[in-house]
What we know:
Strand content: under 5%
Low-confidence stretches: 1-10
Number of strands: 2
Order of helices and strands: EEHHHHHHHHHHHHH
Largest sheet: 2 strands, antiparallel
Structural class: mainly alpha
Strand order of the largest sheet: 1-2
Number of helices: 13
Amino acid sequence: xPNLSKAGGVQGEWTTIIRPRTxxxxxxxxxxxxxxxxIVMFVKRNFAVLxxxxxxxxxxxxxxxxxxxxxxxxxxxxxAGLSTDGxxxxxxxxxxxxxxxxxxxxxxxxANTFVANSQVFGKVYFPRLTMPISQVLTSLINFxxxxxxxxxxxxxxxATGAEMHLTAWxxxxxxxxxxxxxxxxxxxxxxxxLTTKYRDLAIAVSFGVQLWMYVSPVVYPLSTLGNSPRLAFxxxxxxMTAPVEIFRTATLGTGSADMGxxxxxxxxxxxxxxxxxxxxxxxxxTFMDTV
Length: 291
């Protein structure tokens, strides 16, 4: 505490100095780390709010990808007869759907960060980035549960003699999972920053994510585009192509994963996250005036 002199001056050293932030990159990573307990609290709150007053509760974490995989298996595998590269069609669709559900939830849950939490942001200060980080961590926990269900089905099909095997890409999967989370965070906070001024983007984002899924190799393998080099090239420009293909290649032994496509996806993720953090740090200073 500073001491006041007789002349009204201040003696001593200040422990906290508050200055306006005007730079392009004003995210204090050390401050984020100090608020890690708040992030954990937000994660718990997300689960409580999501499954409050529901009949099945957290079981929806498993039912959603399971029912979607069954639907894909019937429509795309049974009716449309799309190739699954010789692997069990149910596992093929579940692998792609597990990765995509994780990515889509990261975007959808962070896309309304400013608008959905404007009342909280206007009353108390805390690092605003803790909110979207807690959302992607919630999605990561859901992904872990869904991945465990995928492992159970994988073991079952393996025990029944299905032709599939693990590959060396398994060692890359932890990096892929973190990359998908960061890509979803980057795209999500870009959308969140823009929705403070353009509210209709929040409406369009869920529709856009659905369209994005169909231009990703979720319901069909990349190998089906082998006869169309132009389409195959455009598909490889999709940053989610590499994670989906790597996940299938690692766990099923089939796919078109390669290191060049993976490096491109990592660079794209870094760029999206960098742009998103810059936008987020700029918008958070004035968003209360526009929300």
